[in-house]
Amino acid sequence: MPREKVQRLALVALVVVAVAFVGSRLLHAGRHVAGHVTEHVADSGHHDRATFEAEMAAVEAEMAALEAEIDAEVEGAVGGAISARAAGRDEVLFEQSFPVQPGDRLAVALSSEDLVVETGAGAASVTVLGEGRDAREAFPRRRFSATYGGGTLRVETNPERNGFRLGGERASYTVVVRVPERMAAELRLASGDVRLGDLQGDLHLETASGDASLGRVRDAAAVRVTTASGDVHAALLDGAEVTVQTASGDVQVDRLAARTASVQTASGDVAVGAAGADRFEAHTASGDVAVERLDAGAVVASTASGDVALRLDGAAPVEASTGSGDVGLALPRAGFDVSLSGPAIEIDGALDFQGQRGRRSAEGRLGGGGPRLAVSTGGGEIRLTAR
Fold first, then answer.
1. Out of 14, 170, 347, 374, which residue is the most buried by the measure of CB atoms under 10 Å away?
2. Alpha-helix residue ranges (DSSP H) falling in 98-251
3. Up-side HSE of residue 220: CA atoms within 13 Å toward CB?
4. Rounded Cα distance, 169 and 111, in Å
């Protein structure tokens, strides 16, 4: 359910409780006044008119006092409801600046908090935002710490293990770290989403459950992104070695540049906009593999169940396979030695295929021959087209 709807429902519930409480107070006041009037009527034969009027004036004064008290309680109840809703918004629970310098290192180890790393000019800082009615009260139990020393900014949580709590704990946290762009970063999360800005330096990101959104990561010796369950999106991954792995989730990389690059998911799609590497590998057990523009010295792409679609800029050895799906390769007009296996094979005439074709295979060369192109599918179509 959307957060705004939950907050509105909580506000309505609090106001209903307030109205019920005020109604109870009004009923009590009415009974109190009725008792006074009954007593005066019963005793009217024993008092003169002046005494009766004096006593009625006292009753009216008591009613006015009760009315003022109820008005204050209404204002407090409704104001409390509005304050409770406001408390659902992000609240700053920790904020501190640190003398971090470009070229330093960031080390983060969180439990179930979301992480936002903002990079750029300006003072480095760490801020913790809490949301939910229990956020402030429960925050000390997160055992949060942020320290700087030896060129490393460390941000950690180590929550207490208190077991089951009736009704649950209504609190969530976001850790916001602001650092220079030129830094190495090691980010580990047990459960939480990660949003990282641009980074110049090595990156090691690991999360057991959560999505990762990355800006431009460049000038790195190594980039390694691993998640057990969650999607990964990166604007740019540029490093000598780039590895992206997820057990369950999609991987999308707009641009990739590396000496060796490996993109893998057990269940999900792999989509790369443009990739350049000495060796490029993309694998998924269940999902599609697609690279819009690929310039590599060697290519290996596979899926057990899904399609493979590659567009090559230059001639290179290629291994592309799927157990159940189609394989489509857009090739430059260069030479390849080809070995194709599948129930349906289509080769663009512009590629100048020469060789032998069987019912489920094709062996030969494109143009004058060259790097080996091995393509197979168990239950789909193979299509080779000229770029």
1. 347
2. 135-138
3. 31
4. 15
